[in-house]
Write a structure and sequence with these properties.
single chain; mainly alpha; two-stranded antiparallel sheet; 7 helices; globular; DNA binding; Helix-turn-helix transcriptional regulator; transcription; DNA-binding
């Protein structure tokens, strides 16, 4: 198991938020679940840029932080669904702000991306 050499500053709200939302696909996963996509296979289809392994790993981290919960239905085939917890619903305003900023700054980011790639 990995042991941190430098302790995390969990007195800082930004650090705590980054710890929970850190990970390339976590905001997208939260947004997908908010839009009604609850099953792992649906998440994999919705977020095609991420591998199923990465999505599953980040789902596990969101579960560990209490942002989402997991319901397993009995029977075959096994059915699993994810939902936002009340704590997870409290993050939605951050996801909304990220979306708004991205929409407002799309042209700038595309221009900078093209400049650095070219």
């Amino acid at each position: 198991m990995y042991e941190r050499k430098i302790p995390e500053d969990l007195e800082c709200g930004v650090t705590i938020t980054a710890k929970v939302l850190g990970g390339k696909w976590k905001p997208c996963i939260i947004d997908s679940i908010r839009r009604g996509i609850q099953r792992p296979s649906e998440l994999h289809q919705d977020i095609t840029e991420a591998s199923p392994r990465v999505i599953n790993m980040q789902l596990r981290e969101l579960l560990d932080h209490g942002i989402i919960d997991k319901k397993i239905y009995p029977g075959l085939p096994l059915k699993v669904e994810y939902n936002l917890t009340p704590v997870g619903e409290g993050i939605l305003f951050i996801i909304d702000a990220m979306d708004k900023w991205g929409e407002e700054n799309r042209d700038h980011v595309l221009q900078v991306t093209e400049e650095t790639a070219g």
